[in-house]
Write a structure and sequence with these properties.
By secondary structure, this protein is an alpha/beta fold. Strands 2-1-3-14-13-4-5-12-10-11 form a 10-stranded mixed β-sheet, sandwiched between helices. The protein has a two-stranded antiparallel ribbon with strand order 6-9. Strands 7-8 form a two-stranded antiparallel ribbon. The longest helix has 24 residues. Bound molecules: NADP nicotinamide-adenine-dinucleotide phosphate (NAP) and magnesium ion (MG). NADP nicotinamide-adenine-dinucleotide phosphate (NAP) binds next to helix 10.
Length: 401
């Protein structure tokens, strides 16, 4: 069989534990037999990050900027236990944090919907995608315990030393106080990423905040979104037949519960953190959720939304059978291959990505699935397969398409 050629390499970021095992199986069974796969390989496995003092993560992110499309395996974010387990030189930052800081942009999380895995919300017929702003607010806060009576103030000192002050509170007794910030530049690129993604997906974009209460802070987000929309996207949205809609966050939550889905929901950092966990569990499983980082210049990094599935890995190491769901990792590859195909004008590559996704979903719809899905499916008599059997079942379908 003739393998599909590629023009530009994908940036391939390998990772850790069970997902590293999945990564290899997916390449060997579902990609290499069909594609003349070209990648620039970066090993983000924790051991190699340690050997390179984490330089490999920085190099990989820069390569993603250079080539435009990357695919990433889940990686360990070191904590104290990992320091001992891997004898690390230091407690490195989260690779996703490092990559996001270099690439900038917005994280889009989209559930993979399939017959037999029904959302808990009956009205949802189409996926709902969360677009999470990945900078600032409470994640970069400065906070303080107030020990007793006193005055808390916000002070801004400009470049010339001129001070502007606002009273936060005249404390009569103990309490707490917190300061947060965000940047016009970051909010603007967040807005652009959301509008571009909505155009790509041909779905309406919602953005919600609490500007009735936070008139200046959340008001700034609302204003920037509206300006970017009016100046850069309004006509494109009209042409594509999609809409931009701003509302209050509590109203958005109420409406989402009654919507049919098929929406991109842009959220501020904290809202996005909370809402993406709500949506992924309401849609079924973290293993059925794709995640892509889109930077404001249209560079893409695809990954699965879940972690390295440590518990399954230790079973695997002991030679026990595992039934780890590879779907989100497969879809990270197909997302990246499709995008590469679109950018390079290699139609065969994009349509292979479509086929592989279809083969994956058809396998599940035929009743063959991993344990996490077998537990929650509405299909009768599901067949629980182990990791390898499931990937081989997908390959069988793929070969006959
Ligand atoms: P996790 O890998 O997401 O797994 C948590 C649990 O969710 C698993 O034990 C498993 O439940 C279930 N699960 C997740 N993905 C699954 C899949 N593909 N198939 C079947 N079940 C799946 O989180 P973790 O084990 O708490 O974290 C492990 C490591 O991942 C940590 O070191 C963390 O730093 C890292 N992490 C990385 C990323 C990333 O790179 N994007 C994101 C999050 C976490 P059962 O055990 O009940 O089967
Ligand atoms: Mg969270």
């Amino acid at each position: 069989m003739n393998r599909i050629p590629m023009k530009t390499p994908l940036v391939e970021m390998d990772g850790d534990e069970m997902t590293r095992i999945l990564w290899k199986m997916i390449k060997e069974e579902l990609l290499l037999p069909f594609i003349d796969l070209r990648t620039e390989y970066y090993d983000l496995g924790l051991k190699h990050r340690d050997e390179t003092d984490d330089q490999v993560t920085v190099d990989a992110a820069n390569a993603a900027l250079k080539y435009g499309v990357a695919v990433k395996c889940a990686t360990i974010t070191p904590n104290a236990a990992r320091m001992d387990e891997y004898h690390l030189k230091k407690m490195y930052r989260s690779p996703n944090g490092t990559i996001r800081a270099i690439m900038d942009g917005t994280v889009f999380r989209r559930p993979i919907t399939v017959k037999g895995i029904e959302p808990n919300v009956r009205t949802w017929k189409k996926p709902i995608t969360i677009a999470r702003h990945a900078y600032g607010d409470v994640y970069r806060n400065v906070e303080m315990v107030v020990p007793g009576p006193g005055r808390a103030e916000l002070v801004f000192t400009d470049e010339n030393g001129h001070e502007t002050r606002k009273l936060i509170h005249e404390f009569q007794g103990p309490g707490v106080v917190q300061g947060m910030h965000n940047l016009d530049k970051s909010i603007t690129s967040f807005a652009r990423s959301c509008f571009s993604y909505a155009l790509d997906a041909k779905e309406d974009l919602w953005f919600a905040s609490k500007d009735t209460i936070s008139k200046q802070y959340d008001g700034r987000f609302k204003e920037i979104f509206q300006t970017v929309f009016d100046n850069e996207y309004k006509e494109k949205f009209e042409k594509a037949g999609i809409a931009y809609f701003y509302t209050l966050i509590d109203d958005a939550v109420a409406r989402i519960m009654k919507s049919q889905g098929g929406i991109i929901w842009a959220c501020k950092n904290y809202d996005g953190d909370v809402m993406s966990d709500m949506l992924s569990s309401a849609f079924g499983s973290l293993a059925m959720m794709t995640s892509v980082l889109v930077n404001p210049d249209g560079k893409y990094e695809y990954e699965a939304a879940h972690g390295t599935v440590q518990r399954h890995y230790y079973k695997y190491l002991k030679g026990e059978e595992t039934s780890t769901n590879p779907v989100a990792t497969i879809f990270a590859w197909t997302g990246a291959l499709r995008k590469r195909g679109q950018l390079d004008g290699t139609e065969a590559l994009s349509s292979f990505a479509d086929k592989l996704e279809k083969a994956t979903l058809s396998t599940i719809e035929s009743g063959k699935m991993t344990g996490d899905l077998a537990r929650i499916t509405t299909l009768e008599n599901p067949q629980k397969l182990n990791t390898e059997e499931f990937i081989k079942a997908i390959r069988m379908l793929l070969e006959n398409m």
